[in-house]
Write a structure and sequence with these properties.
Three copies of one chain form a homotrimer. Chain A is of the alpha/beta class. Chain A is built from four helices and 40 strands. In chain A, the strands form six sheets. A twelve-stranded mixed β-sheet of chain A has the order 8-11-14-17-20-25-28-31-34-37-39-40, with helices on one face. Chain A has a ten-stranded parallel β-sheet with strand order 9-12-15-18-21-26-29-32-35-38, with no helix packed on it. In chain A, strand 22 (197-200) and strand 23 form a beta hairpin. The N and C termini of chain A lie far apart (78 Å). At the A-B interface, strand 19, strand 22, strand 23, helix 3 and helix 4 of A face strand 4, helix 2, helix 3 and helix 4 of B.
């Protein structure tokens, strides 16, 4: 394969002193050294600053060709004595600040692409970008500074707040509402019909799905995720919630502020998730549960009962995490337990014989 | 965030007496009271009828502002004595009937959007809608009254029956066949290549996937679900089957009539699923199994062997549900069992000492 | 439902002798017999050749109407004495060869569809097809003989090698790179942002995702799968890797050559997967693991620790496969173990009484 010979350049170089100033860190070594990019320790080249915040990456330091390091106080001891560095107490916010300067957002131009199709009574705010082949139904509103990617379909009556970004190929069903600064990745489907049927004469007859899908401010939704509209009443995703890729949220689910759902999670109908909850990858919850604030659901766990605030659970079906660990340990020791019972039986039979 | 100030109005108001008549129920209270919408008990306002059919929602009745209730006979006792109500024996079909009147389907207009691209020999029935930017390949047929959403791609030789609805962004690969009244949600991919390779000289070489994907009447397919075409022979989805979102059905799977697959289910190649089978969310089946009619696969279960008709299974790997429950209970009591063995050993060692 | 009355004809008929010659097998019976298609034993008609390579299908031979068989040496004994056949030692490569002749790729025409939108500095090789409504951003390069399906969005700076096929509705985010002969199925999203946030003042703040998504030669990616770009550093999919439908690969994952990931698999951030690894359907791996070359992860397994080369693991959490089988067997026998302990206790209490 051939790689791109001319990758898009990032912004101009920054000196080590400027970076220390930017991220609120202290520098050591050559303050005037310039770097072009921030890279992982095992991939950084001689014009890069290497990022070191996790013990796992310390092993690559001896072979690292980086000009300098952005390093946490804890990990600084793993650097060679003479390495140029910027040292910070909290490395991830520092990394975020630096990357925002090194990789400023790509320039874009407000405007409605001539191939976009807008229905009647569409309201478009100031500084909005609507990409090629986007289709906006009647009565759609798009807030100031929002960007609608190529091929998005925003169905009748949907409302998009200010400062949103919809990547290409997003579909909003009718009357879906997004708050401000919502990011929706390619292929997400919001407001689709819930999985609701009622048996009539032995056939599954579709229940009309007449609720809405309402997404609050600062939510981010991953690629190809799906959030169903409510059947009766609405599906609601709270402020600052983040969903990873391929997540499924069923009809009438409510998710509280700042909860995080990792990839391939599935939440069944009408379950209410509190604030600051974590669902690990491929975990799920059955319908009509109450998941308390701050609950932690580890990867591939299946929640089948209500969770108290702050509870951590694991396993299928889910158990309190400590109980789960103890049980797992005892399952591992089952072969030994069987042997111990066997010995007791042998002793017993020996006694009887004797 | 700002919500839509002008949500689309539903149809005109209905009186309590008219609703009782419509759903075949009896009314009590103010027969002339008018309601605009049906809502859940915990969301209904003073111009709404609240729906009460599950014990879980009875707790919200004291705070409910609804004008009236649609209530099952069983739950009627949870209402205040003087609440206006319509009482029915079978609440979900009644809800369905009422919603169909309160939320009639949005008006749409038959016709081929000028931006749609139709190949040669495309057959379009009477009263068909083909949305903006849809692409129909050579030889595609679309039956009377079907609606093809914006951006759908219907590849060469595919056949869509009458009364179907394809939401935006659906892709049918070549020669896919849909029956009548099939609903396909946004982003579903039907007829994609199966995951089939054969090792030749150490490389996985792609097997041509030459079978078809055939969907029978009255099937509904959820958003972003994928159904592969057959490799040799066809993949077949039977009459009235319903798939939720993000479901994967592999090559050459057959699914019998009226089976239901919840979200994130995966069925591996050539497995044959009977009629009226239920797969709970995130469950799956390995390849080449026979799943009998009416089998029930609970959430997150992994089926690794054939299932008899009517069998209910749980767990990874799946076991008969009762055995699974018993095993789970015994796993929970493992710590106690270990203690009991320990005591026996202690007693034994005490005996020996003595 | 009505099936397509005129399915696309496959190529002309082949004689049994010609097929034997083509696949390097020996024939028996009527060498001049002509067949039109290869079909499974339980679906083959009187103008078809039936394919028999698995014991499971031998039961259908007595009712099979096929004109002739393509059969493995091992399965030949299941045929009637007088059945015309082509016998091969390695049936799947033979099937592949025969299907390639019976079902030659559909004809297509190079060219850029007039509705495709190309940005500035787009490089298009010789014999490239770009479908209707495709959108290619600035600086995109497409290698010779590649086909970009309808509605694909190839964002700025992305590079597609030679001989690739992108089915409709694929999205490549900015600066995504595909090698040669890469196949990407409908709805796959490559280079989307990873799930990366850092807590600042109690809010999850988005980390810029500045790495790339780099796909090597001969990779195939299933429908609606998602591969995130790197956060720092790149996500890399190695030579000849095959991903099934609805697979999630997170930021900074590396997958070694010829690994296979079945449907609904999820791989969390920064995990490194070796060469020739197998992940069964709905299995997953947590972040920052090292999975050795040739490791085998069975269906619905959850990998939570590094795997040695060649290791086979099962279960949630994953254990060595043999230990898993032994443990499963002992879990099945738990009720008996409980009884045995009970008897020992009874005997013991009897002793004490006596």
């Amino acid at each position: 394969m051939t790689e791109n010979p001319n990758p898009t350049p990032s912004s101009a170089a920054l000196t080590v002193a400027a970076i220390a100033d930017l991220v609120g860190g202290r520098w050591k070594g050559d303050a005037n050294l310039e770097v072009l990019a921030l890279e992982p320790v095992d991939e950084a080249g001689p014009r890069d600053m290497a990022f070191l915040a996790a013990r796992r990456y310390a092993q690559h330091v001896p072979d690292c060709a980086a000009a300098a390091y952005l390093v946490s106080e804890e990990m600084e001891k793993h650097l060679p004595e003479d390495a140029t560095r910027v040292v910070v107490s909290d490395p991830y916010p520092a990394m975020r600040t630096l990357l925002q300067v090194l990789h400023p957002p790509t320039a874009w131009t407000a405007g409605v692409h001539p191939t976009a199709i807008l229905g009647s009574d569409v309201g478009v705010g100031v500084g909005v970008e609507i990409g090629p082949y986007a289709v906006l139904g009647d009565g759609v509103c798009v807030g100031d500074g929002s960007r609608i990617g190529a091929h998005c379909v925003i169905s009748r009556g949907s409302v998009i707040g200010a400062g949103c970004r919809l990547y290409p190929h997003v579909v909003l069903y009718e009357e879906t509402t997004l708050g401000d600064r919502v990011i929706v990745h390619a292929g997400a489907r919001l407001g689709s019909d819930g999985f609701g049927y009622t048996l009539i004469d032995g056939e599954h007859m579709k229940m009309p799905q007449v609720g809405r899908c309402i997404i609050d401010d600062d939510v981010e939704i991953g690629a190809n995720s799906t959030i169903d509209r409510g059947s009766l009443g609405d599906t609601r995703i709270g402020h600052g919630v983040k969903l990873d890729n391929l997540v499924h949220v069923a009809h009438n689910v409510h998710i509280g502020a700042r909860s995080l759902l990792a990839a391939l999670v599935g939440i069944a109908g009408s379950t209410r998730i509190g604030r600051g909850v974590w669902f690990g990858g491929q975990s799920g919850a059955i319908n009509q549960l109450e998941i308390g604030d701050g609950a932690q659901v580890t990867v591939q766990t299946g929640v089948t009962r209500d969770l108290a605030p702050g509870e951590t659970v694991s396993g299928i079906p889910s158990r309190p995490h400590r109980e789960y660990l103890r049980t797992q340990a005892q399952i591992s020791r089952l072969p030994k337990l069987v042997e111990r019972v066997q010995r007791l039986e042998l002793d017993r039979s020996h006694d009887s014989d004797g």
